[in-house]
Amino acid sequence: MLDYHIHTRYCGHAWGEMEQYVEHALAVGLDEMGFSCHYPYPAGFEEPAPNCSIPAGLFDEYLDSARELRERYRGRITIRLASEFDYLGPEWPVHPLAEAERLGLDYCLASLHLVEGVVVDYNPELLLKGMRQKGWDMDDLYERYWTTLLELARPGYCTTVGHLDLVKKLAGAEPALTPKRDHSALVLRVLDALAASGTAMEINTSGWDKPCAEQYPSEWIVVAAASRGVPITVGSDSHRPEEVGRKFDRLAALLERTGVRQLVRFEGRRAYAYPLNEEPGQKAAGQ
Question: Can you give the pTM of this predicted structure?
Fold first, then answer.
């Protein structure tokens, strides 16, 4: 199995040395992993939540460390280089796929944590404050969130959209954080766009540890994505070494229930089939 969503101490909100993440990946039987620390915010951007991305001065060090580990562990586990890019709106000059090509990354996650400046996933207080300032309720936020995701799903923007329905993360914390209307039509528009563009969707297991108490995205979305032929990858969204591969037993059951028999893996921004019936270690030689 692979885990394509791993943060390390280079992100100010994660802990542990990169080598510790690799060792835990080996301990839980992974044959492929990808470091995906947050890409630096643009100069002058005021972070609405603290320590969300790598400081610009440390990004090259992060990549160098990942490359060194990739060589040191070659033949034992495949290590991919990547980054998670926060979508900050159409005016943001950074294009994830183009930047991934310039940096020699294997893949790039594009994720939506901010909707017009409202932080959707930090804590209930910050989310409610942001919505009050905009005059929104949760249905307003959902509509804007899913509409914005259409930008990430367009052809050639990124290899993978991360934690597709992250907007639900805090839904179990307070009643006001659960929408009242059905937004499934917008969700299906996003899935259609992913299918048309060939952009992958991530199944992210960290949601099982959050107030929403389920993976991202919801099971019905996984089924709808698979039926449309949307490429699927998986990640733990680890922020500590011991979280690598977390809840992958539950993930395996989810993949079985939803009929997902194949994931995609990435090398040099190109997607390759990752059949789930292969024995661990079969793909390590293809680093």
Answer: 0.91
